[in-house]
Amino acid sequence: MKKSWNALGACLLAVSLAAAAAPASAGDDCDVPIERWQTREAVTRMARQKGWDLKRVKIDDGCYEIRGEDAQGRTFKAKLDPETLEIVKIKYRDHDRHDRERRRDRDRDHRDSRNSRDAAPGAMPSAAPAAATGKPSAAVSVSGARIE
What we know:
Elements (H helix, E strand, L loop, with lengths): L1 H20 L18 H11 L2 E8 L2 E7 L5 E6 L6 E6 L4 H21 L9 H7 L6 E3 L2 E3 L1
Antiparallel strand pairs: 1-2, 2-3, 3-4, 5-6
């Protein structure tokens, strides 16, 4: 009985090692011989027919990867089968560059206000609050020059 368990264990080990050694294939990779690929110009033509404005065309994982805006103005990234130009995968972005810039500015303002709030007690306040109250700001010495 012990021999049969050892043989079964060896078989299971061999099967698991073979499965681990097999290359993992992603569902969005393309496996088309280069001689059957359509040209980049064909990709651009197809995009124009769909009303897309392309910003970038490159090759990734054996597929054409394109970035641009669709007819509704949404930013997208798509992988195309290089032989049929069918969409293998497409991902839309909810925000545009303006939203990213606005978020970055908001984060910077938040960080600046947090840093000024965390300043050491007795640290010199900025000139803006003093000017807001109508009082002159304190004189400051920079590199030996007195600035008032």
